[in-house]
Input
Amino acid sequence: MGTNAVAGQKGVKRSLVAIIFLVILVSIIPEIIFRETTGSIPGWNHYARLILLAIVAVSLQLVASLKHLTKFVLLLIALTLGNILLNMVAGMDAWADVFPTDTFLGNVGGNMVLKIIQIIPVTAALLVLFKGPAEAYLAKGDLSAKVEEIKCLGIRQGQLSWGRLAVISGLLISLGTILLTIITVTGASVEPAFSKLPALFPMVLVFALVNSLCEGIVYRSSVISSLKNILPKNQLMLVAAAFFGIAHYYGAPGGIIGVVMSGVLGWYMCRSMYETRGFASSWIIHFMQDVVIFSTIIVLGSFG
Output
């Protein structure tokens, strides 16, 4: 192995270690630790993150071998600013009156409004840093692009287009989500309330579109655009998968099962974006799953 190859491998390893540290810092792992050990999350946590990220951003300019991570750190700063803004809005006195948590519209709809607020700084940063939607992975992409070999799923090189596979896999993943959510979250003792679903289904579609868009920007567009020229494809997919999976620790289903399930889904959707060089394939898959999740919340929940 040549000297340049060895140096290149060491550079990738250093970058990967730094990226893992940054993902842990910005993920909800600190919140999980605080909540599980003390029962509450300190109000200063996002501000502490912001200070640490600012220090890292400045420090990177002094370390030539890691300076290429600057755009990734700037996007994480934008995400942290989005979280601070989100918490400020959610903490307003009028928020609970406008979005009561005992209704589907108030609870889930309010959460969607907060997610839109959260992605405003991230989207702005993506467009500024990458000078357009395509390089920021905010464009549609090529749905006719052929899927590269996925051995674990038995998919051969060039066997399917991502446009077709997105729909097929979206349906299958949604079916699996129904079964696993019922088993791990609700159990067999909950009486379904199917009569509520038709009236609320238009909201389900809108919220699914919004949620899949927002999470795609935060957990995939920001990761792929800033790290595609830094990490090999497989490592990039794993970083995006971990970032997305950890974020769903308190999801439905949650816990380690939820992290693993969401992580696998995140890996798959990130791969679809990487190979199509765009957003649409991942959005299709995520949207279909979110329709199922929000519908399940209504059918098995207590919302009006």
In short: The radius of gyration is 20 Å.
